[in-house]
Every structure is written in structure tokens, then in C-alpha cells.
């Protein structure tokens, strides 16, 4: 007599299929995420990206009136190309020259126009092998 | 002193190496005395690690800046208690804490089980020692906390944001959780290596798993509360890879805690259980790898360090080792019974497991996708909050519902009539709650409304279980209602402790839904005398004061708060500018929080920008029910303690089961 298969297998198989279906649905509707780029990779990009870089020079302006302006360069390339950024919205406490930040936005006429409130500075938590770099 | 610390770590490495080699040989060749010697070496490794930890702690307390690690994470003005928390404020110290907890757990686990599960423990010893070898090797060779230098006059100090009571407790709790998962993993591997794949490894490790799981849960809530009160962005969880690193093993361990009950009760899911425990352990190592490798972009400043590849190697070893063992022992892991119906308690546990694992793996995918994307396409991709929120709703809401169904449904096979009788009450409560909330305007967020409705269902189901149990107890023993209630819990600690934990999860769900789906926000620049209003509150800015302390220059904005015209008094929010070494003073926002303890709501004020002219740019939130999240932590701990509390009756029951399970195995 053939051995009857356990319904648990059916449940697991159907669940995996359901998860895959949900996943495909999500990725088809909501997309697969925002590209994360360094300032040196930004040239020619038109869509929304997440920019990771280090703040160089003295920031000017007001993030709640006209925008905060500063420049970003690649974290690992001290002499590398910089990108001008204009940002509005909440500025994290840790934002300062020499700090690493992540910011979303689009390159428009050579300036990275950040999405309001999208700036994230690196949290000062542990395990950093080196001290925060200062310019 | 540094030499003593280094020597102690070398001794730990030597002892653990001996425990691996001698322990494996003894287990394979059934050399009992040698196995005892390996076990003792593992216990002694805890002693030597304790010496190393003591040396480092003394270095902090004495402000011995000749130790580079101490100089980098402490200074003379640091408060005494934070000098100790600076111990784990950096990579080397936190690795030492890992090793200390690991060897402590390992010593206790092998000692407690030395007579009860000898055939298992002989294999558990080398597995645990093998994990300890990896960490002690890193501490001796790659990241020593005892590197020395010419002592500077003062140290760099601990980051001000970390000088917070929650941040003192958060890392040790997380480590207690992460590292604690090594014990059930080692017992599972020990069971596979010894061929004793019965329930004994589960019985032996149930409490260990529960302790690790509780610590991981509490650790995450402490971290969330720290982020809420200290980081000053108005949230408590950002789906950051580093936060996800702790959530993933917690979800896998939650699934494991549920599925072991199926193995204990019905002899099913044996393969699934060893897979889950291996997954939970590997994810805990993966979490440590993520936090230290710099491989993903995170809001946490975990710089790229040399230690990442070592952890990657450990993950590969753990995955290959456990997968090979599971495949090798598949013939011994066959279920002794079968799932009889898709409508039964064990089936609900299975659905619960699948949802938990699906949620865990989708989070893993979200964390790993940027790495894979960069490797395959050359461009890293950020997986943001919408992705995680989507899957939390898709998998989390059904999980919430199952929490109400599971405890009430019958084992083996549930009849339709029985289901109707059991679920009518909770279903009516849920529907009525949903309708009332809809009428009150909760329909503005459909996921929020569903979460509340399901929460009402679960709470009603749990209340029903307590009422039924108390009534039955009272009928049996003629006790008073309170007496019967407490006696019911006392006699079934595991079961009713579990229900209390379920209540905590419901509170968590209500708090998350309330604070995320129904919060409101207003922002604006205020001059003295101007106000902002939202959700019935009016916040009037009254002016600034400045204060100079030894640690920081503090600026505070004073605010007058009223609600619906009635004064609620004053509150303050501001910024601290810390006096630390370096070109830039470190500034932190000190948010203002006014809690309504009756409704669980917070008025949350962030002073985003304090201007030279005395005006302040404020962002103000009203976060309904957010305090239920923190209350959930207390209830969660209470439930876990109830489930963990020693129970002589259960011990006797388990001892019988243990002996039964320990009968000779059928073939190898």
C-alpha cells in the first residue's frame, strides 16, 4: 500500500508558494529599492538615489528656510570629487563637517537636491574601529 | 595588568582548544574521564575569561589610559557607572563580553547537565568550546582589548548618547540573548553527533532557550526605548540592518519555542526544530558580523574593521557543520506521528512557524539584498521602510490572529461544532471592537484597524482561557476565585506564562499600530509667546535658559502645555553641547516627553533648531498608545519569569519523559 503523504508537506509547499507570490507582488508594485551611491558615482544619474558620503567644507544656510547647503565626497577618497547638496528638513544632531551621512534625493543641474527630512547621520554607537574622522 | 589580561585570554584559548580536541576524541571513543577533563577545561575557561574581564573593568575604574581601549572609550569625568558600561562601548570590549557570557553559559550548561544527559554533554562540550575558540582567538590575535600605549592625560570619553541607563543595559541583554542561543544549538548538534535525536536535547535546553529569547526580546525593547528618548527623531525602530540583526534570531527562536512543543507533545517536526535552532544561532552570528564588518550601510557607525571576514568564516563553518549533521542524521529525525488535520493545534503551530520564518527570511533578504545587489550588479540598493512595513503587515497580522486561535483549538483534530463553541465569544468581541473603532474614526488606517480587531480577539481568547481554567480549578479544589486563579498559573507555569507573553505581544501590536498609524505631527519656528497646536494640545514657547555643567552646556526651551483649553503645566526640551575632546562639540537633542498614563499617549517635542535670535524650530508629535510598547516589555518579562520559574511538578513530569525519551535509539 502506498504511504499516505503528510498534509504538513502540502502546507509547507503552499506556504512557500504563497510567500513567493507575495514577494513577487511586492517587488512588481513597489520596486526593488533605491540605488545606494557614492558621490563619485552620481554623474549622469537621473532617478532618486540614496547618497552616502562625508561632509566637507562649512555648511551654510538654514534647513528650515531656503535650505542647508554643503558638499559631500566619497567616504574613502579624501581627495575625491565633491557634490553640492541642498537639503531641507530636520538636521540630525550629529551632522557636522567630517561626519558620514546618508541622504536621499536626485541630481538636478549638478546639485543633489535632497528629499526633505531624509538625512541620516551615522549613529554614534559602538564597534567603530576608528574614531570619528574630523576634517 | 595588561599582561595579566592578555595571559588570561591566551589561557582561555588554550583551554577551549583542549576542550574541543580532547572532548571530541573522548566523545568519539567513549573515554569518560577524558570527557570529564574536557568539560572541566571549559568550566575553567570561564574562570580565565573572568580574570581578563576583571582586568579590563579595573582598567576602566582606575582610568588606566595606558590601555588603548580604555583611553578610547572613557575619560576622567565619566560617571562611575558609565565607566563600567564603557567596557562594552567598543569592539574589543564587547567581544570580551561575548566570550565572558559564552563561557559562563557553557560552564553552567555542561555542569548542570553533567549527570542528566552525559551522552549528550560529551558532544555539547566540544561544540560550545569550538564557538569559544573562535571568540578567544579573535581577542588574542585580531582585536585585543589589552593593547597598550603611552598613557595620555585623559581619554576620549564615552559617546554622550551612550551615557544613558537604557544603553547600559541594552548591549548586555542582547549578548545574553545572542550568546544564549549557542546553548540550544550546541545541544542540538550534540544530539545529532551522538545519535540521540529524541526529545532530551529539547528538554535539557528549554529553559536556556527561554532565557536567551527573553533577554533578546528585552534587549531589543531597551534599545528601542533608548532610541525613543535619546536619539530624538520621534521613533523607536528604523528597520536598520543592525536592529534587524537582533530581530531575526528572535523571530527564529520564537518559532523554535513553539515548534518544540509539537515535538514534545506529538513527536513531530524533528528536522524542522534542529533547522530552526541552527538558523537562530547562525543568525545571531550573522548579526554580530553585520555590526562589525561595515558590509552594509547602516545608521550605526560600524566602521569597516578587520574582524568581518572572521565572522563570515564562523558563519560558513556553522552553516556547513549544522547542515552536514542534519543531512547525515535525517534517518533518525523521522516524525513518530503525523499531522492528522489542518484544523488542529499542531497545524496552527505549524502555520505560526511558517509565518515567523517567512517574516525572518524576508527581513534577512532585505538586509542581504544590498550586499547581493552590489556583488551581482555593481550597485548597492537600499531596502527601505516600505519593504519591511509591507511584510510586517502581511505576515504579522495573521500571526497576531493565530495567537488567539492556537491556545483554544484542540490537539489532533478540531470539529466544526467545537470551533464554533470555542470562538464565538472572542469573535463577537473582535467584531464589536472593530465596529466601535471604525465609528470612532480608526478606519483612517486599515492595517491599524485590523491590528486592533485581531488584538481584541486574542485578548478575549486569552481571557476565556484564564476564566475556564480558573473555573475548572475552583470546581476541583473549592478555592476562592483569586486562589484558584493563582493556583492555576502556579500549576501550569509554562502554559499560562506563555499566555501572559501573548498579552505582551498584543500590547506591543496595539502600541506599534497606535503610534505608527494614528500619530499626528506639526512643526514650525516659534518666537517667544508663539504656539503650535495639534490633536487638542497647544504648546506655547516661553523662552530659553542656559546652564553650564561639568559635562555639557545645556540649553532648554520652556513650554507651556494645555489640552482643550485646560493647562497641563510646563515641559522643557533642548540641546546639550558636550565637552569632549575633538574639534567639534558633540550636540544632542534632549526631547521633551509628556506622558498621559491613562491613555498611554505621548506628547513628544523635538527642538530641531535653536537659533541665535532665541527662536526655536520645533517638531511636535502626538503618539497614541506608544507607552503600551514599554508596558509590553514589563508584561513580557513577567510572562517569561512565570514560564521559567522552577516548578517541582513539571520537573518530575519532565524527568519521566526524559527517561522515556532516553531509551536506546533505533539504529544509527
Classify the fold: give the CATH topology of the largest domain in chain A. Answer: OB fold (Dihydrolipoamide Acetyltransferase, E2P)
Number of helices of chain A: 1
Number of strands of chain A: 7
Q: Over the alpha carbons, how many angstroms does the gyration radius of chain A reach?
A: 22 Å
Q: What general form of chain B does the structure show? A: globular
What is the CATH-assigned architecture of the largest domain in chain A?
A: Beta Barrel
Give the SSE string of chain A. HEEEEEEE
Order of helices and strands of chain B: HHHHHHHHHHHHHEHHHHHEEEEEEEEEHH
Notes on the structure:
The complex is a heterodimer of chains A (135) and B (668). By secondary structure, chain A is α+β, with helices and mostly antiparallel strands. Chain A is built from one helix and seven strands. Chain A folds into two domains: 1-33, no CATH class; 36-122, Beta Barrel (OB fold (Dihydrolipoamide Acetyltransferase, E2P)), CATH 2.40.50.140. In chain A, strand 3 (67-73) and strand 4 form a beta hairpin. Chain A is elongated, with a radius of gyration of 22 Å. Residues 125-135 of chain A have low confidence and may be disordered. Chain B is of the alpha+beta class. Chain B has four domains: 1-155; 164-337 and 349-359; 415-518 and 628-641, no CATH class; 520-578 and 585-623, no CATH class. Chain B is built from 20 helices and ten strands. Chain B has helices spanning 2-29, 32-61, 68-73, 80-85, 91-112, 118-142, 165-180, 182-194, 200-231, 241-266, 270-293, 308-328, 345-377, 385-405, 416-439, 446-477, 481-491, 493-517, 627-644, 648-661, and strands at residues 380-382, 520-526, 531-534, 537-548, 552-563, 566-578, 586-590, 592-596, 601-610, 616-623. In chain B, strands 3-4-5-6-7 form a five-stranded antiparallel β-sheet. In chain B, helix 8 crosses helix 11, helix 11 (270-293) packs antiparallel against helix 12 and helix 16 packs across helix 17. The radius of gyration of chain B is 27 Å and the shape is globular. Chains A and B meet through helix 1, strand 1, strand 2 and strand 7 of A and helix 13, strand 1, helix 14, strand 7 and strand 9 of B.
